[in-house]
Design a protein that fits this description.
The protein is mostly helical. About 65% of the residues lie in helices and about 5% in strands. The longest helix has 25 residues. The radius of gyration is 20 Å and the shape is elongated.
Length: about 170
């Protein structure tokens, strides 16, 4: 995109680079809310049934049994914390980095079971009782790539409107 030139009352022109455009902060709000609400909802749904979440985590056959149980217990609460921080816009860059790393881990996990021909209930939003299919993996990965892009946006442009970060640090 090209720079935007605006006239000011003194007759001088003010050049604004596209990445400094005010709309960028609103795009950041959207990215924050999309990623934050997704994490919050996924975390709450998983936390409501930790035994199913641990079982879903073990089904990936990536971590040892005990480590999968620890991760399956810890992950929902991490998602809830990340979701809340993103929604309010506190520590946005660091939260987006952690959220992005989590998305990468999810993409790797889903890709791994898909590549190995394992059909599982991924448990991305808790166990929903649906029978798993291999076809769902591509949609899960596409969703997670979109969420990863939201996280990447917030790592690059963490300052957004309507955020605690902005209120505290400008």
């Amino acid at each position: 995109m090209a720079d935007q030139t605006q006239s000011v009352s003194s007759g001088a022109t003010l050049t604004t680079k596209w990445h400094q455009h005010p709309a960028m902060e609103w795009i950041g709000v959207a990215a924050r809310l999309i990623l934050g609400v997704t994490y919050l909802v996924a975390g709450v749904l998983k936390a409501r049934d930790l035994e199913s979440t641990r079982m879903d985590t073990r089904a990936f056959r990536i971590l040892s049994y005990d480590l999968a149980n620890i991760w399956g217990t810890f992950m929902p609460f991490l998602e809830i914390i990340l979701g809340l921080l993103l929604i309010v816009g506190l520590m946005t860059r660091m939260t987006a980095i952690l959220g992005g790393l989590l998305m990468i881990a999810f993409i790797i996990g889903i890709s791994s079971v898909w590549a190995r021909g394992i059909v599982i209930q991924c448990g991305c939003f808790g166990s929903n009782g649906k029978l798993p299919t291999m076809a769902a993996y591509k949609w899960d990965i596409l969703r997670d790539v979109g969420l990863l892009l939201c996280a990447a946006w917030l790592v690059i442009w963490p300052r957004t409107k309507l955020s605690v970060d902005r209120a505290l640090w400008g």
